[in-house]
Amino acid sequence: MRVGFIGLGSQGGPMARRIIDAGFPTTLWARRTATLEPFAGTTAEPAGSPAELAAASDLVCVCVTGDADVEEVLVGGGVLSAMPPDGVVAVHSTVHPDTCRDLAQQARRHGVSIIDAPVSGGGPAAAQGRLLVMAGGDADVLQRCRPVFESFSDAVIHLGDLGSGQTAKLLNNLLFTANLGTAAAVLTLAADLGVAPERLAAVVSRSSGNSFALNSIGKTGGLERLAGLAGTLLRKDVRLLADLAEQASASGGVALDAADAALALMDVAR
């Protein structure tokens, strides 16, 4: 399978490297040529435009920031119209499920399929081939893509119809955001009660109260620093999830309340 990759950031870059190292013929495109420099010694070929990349690919993986970026690349950049028939686009970005469904309608007119395949784990996990892929879409199309996905992941979970992968990722990020607020509040309470927060973190990390959120706060040097690294992205994801819940007349309950409280603590209130 010929693979095109767009979005060579902190997570997409290692994903693309794993695909290249697995032996898949790979084409890369980036707005900034400097982004391509780390791949100069590889077998990957640079493309002059997204459309040029698409024409040379059976599968195009997109790992850009948000909904508007995905639409700009796939529609404005000509990926959908330039792909060969039976081509597949995998949206690894975390976006609204409706964005994937709307793009799928446009893709069908060109004989192209869309898979939503957001990932979890971050750049280090991508470099080690340990990402989790949450996939939504046609099972047969996913099966064609699976060997590529498995080059950078150790689990590819099919959630169901198109958009279900994005829904699962948003639910995961809602829980993570809520857990951040809870962990930060506990660490603050520890200080008020005379227990050093870093020592409590060392205890909890080996106990039943452990969480990925608590460890993230510790590794980044506090919630304020973590907010600078990921606050706006978490706000985007909580907003998307809240919109999904509203569309379904469903309640976010205490999870959404806790996530909102965490965003407020990070000064990125929804």
From TrEMBL:
Gene3D superfamilies: N-(1-d-carboxylethyl)-l-norvaline Dehydrogenase, domain 2, NAD(P)-binding Rossmann-like Domain. GO terms for molecular function: NAD binding; NADP binding; oxidoreductase activity. GO terms for biological process: organic acid catabolic process. It comes from Mycobacterium asiaticum. Belongs to the HIBADH-related family. Residues 2-160 form the 6-phosphogluconate dehydrogenase NADP-binding domain. This is 6-phosphogluconate dehydrogenase. InterPro entries: 3-OH-isobutyrate_DH-rel_CS, 6-PGluconate_DH-like_C_sf, 6PGD_dom2, 6PGDH_NADP-bd, HIBADH-like_NADP-bd, HIBADH-related, NAD(P)-bd_dom_sf. It comes from the Bacteria. The active site is at residue 169. Residues 163-251 form the 3-hydroxyisobutyrate dehydrogenase-like NAD-binding domain. It holds the Pfam family NAD_binding_11. The keyword RNA-binding does not apply. PANTHER family: 3-HYDROXYISOBUTYRATE DEHYDROGENASE-LIKE 1, MITOCHONDRIAL-RELATED. The keyword Oxidoreductase applies. Keywords: NAD, Oxidoreductase.
